[in-house]
Amino acid sequence: MARAQTSFVCQSCGAAAAKWSGKCEACGSWNSIVEEKAFAPSGPAARKPARGRAVVLEDLATSEEPPPRRVTGIAEFDRVCGGGLVPGSALLVGGDPGVGKSTLVLQALAAHAKAGGRVVYISGEEAMAQVRLRARRMDLADAPVSLASATCIEDILATLDAGPVPGLVAIDSIQTIWTSALDAAPGTIAQVRTASLDLVRYAKASGAAILLVGHVTKEGQIAGPKAVEHLVDAVLYFEGERGHQFRVLRAVKNRFGATDEIGVFEMTGEGLKEVPNPSALFLGDRNSAAPGAAVFAGLEGTRPLLVEMQALLAPASYGTPRRAVVGWDSSRLAMVLAVLDARAGVGAAGNDVYLNVAGGLEIREPAADLAAAAALVSSLANRALPRGTVFFGEISLSGEIRPAQQPELRLKEAAKLGFSTALVPAGIKAGPGDMVLKEVAHVAELAKLIGVGEKRARETAAW
User: Fold this and answer.
1) CB neighbours (10 Å) of residue 186?
2) Are 370 and 399 in contact (CB under 8 A)?
3) How far is residue 354's CA from residue 358's CA, in Å, rounded to a whole number?
4) Which of 91, 287, 422, 445 could be bridged to 234 by S-S, CB 3.0 to 4.6 A?
5) pTM over 0.85
6) Could you give the domains of the chain?
């Protein structure tokens, strides 16, 4: 027979405890520990495991061709996935509530179905009438998508086994799926882990590609155990600010493609629309030149991306200056401010500092240091930077400007959008076409060009 085993598991981090307590000692969350029951075999069968069978060992050399990817027809989605979905793979999509996860998955399935593929959409949160209303609003009602509303994993697998193997299967969301083998409530650590494992096993055995929609916690991490992210083949985050219409699909794990690719979408009343040239949109209206605005020539995966960084420095009203950052790392801002004061004599640390990345995009690469520094110094000096100029480069603690990856792609994208000048780290010889490159080796040179800094700043050419 089987005996019940009781454990207390934190629903935030998955740590197990011997008894219940109000606070999880592993992650510090309050009221997150829940009692869970699991059944383990007892008696002679538990002490005598079945003898295993030998498996065939093979070498790394193979003559098999990689399986063709299943293209959904949404270019931005396929780009982030590495060119399409691999048969037998499992993909997890997470994001804040209301950001458009269900809309994105439904559009991807409808596009693949219209191209002749067989797709199945399992909704565990919404009724089928609600999904149909969304499809009608997005003009997808005629797409041959097989729709069902279910939350029991045994029912879902039985339904999938009853018909032909689908090309794509979407589960919205994995936190609502439960199995009758466990007594825990849906959404708990055990239920989410077991349901995910069953779906991944089905994908590997049948060849269907599984799309799992996942909730996120208040910290922005996908809810449930980390084991779910280890089980799946790709983890995508759908990001976006409520005040902006742009949405960014970012890959943080991908066994079949790059992990730094992004796809850009625009949320409209008819659903998500692809943005083939996001640089033009993120730059916005740049007809008026204002102090504190610098254009950063960034790189997201294989895609060059130009975005405007805006800074504002004002006299501090209180004893401790305020630092407010949107779209960039706050600790990176503190480092750049310290380097500007210590190495260039700018004197910006005593001011309130506000830094914003236009368009709601989040920048994560260190090459944005030079653009951020240029925006900060420009705001402090109350001098607008010349139009048609882009910046990129990493700032070290010594004040030196270090090179960034793939400068040719950054400069080519800037030239395509009409920029004629680039402030770059030393070592870049020539730009595309007639673009003028101005090398900056130290932050003191940057301050000197803009007109800020002490006399000990290095001598350099005029702007």
Assistant:
1) 17
2) no
3) 13
4) 91
5) no
6) 2-45 (no CATH), 75-276 (3.40.50.300), 280-450 (3.30.230.10)
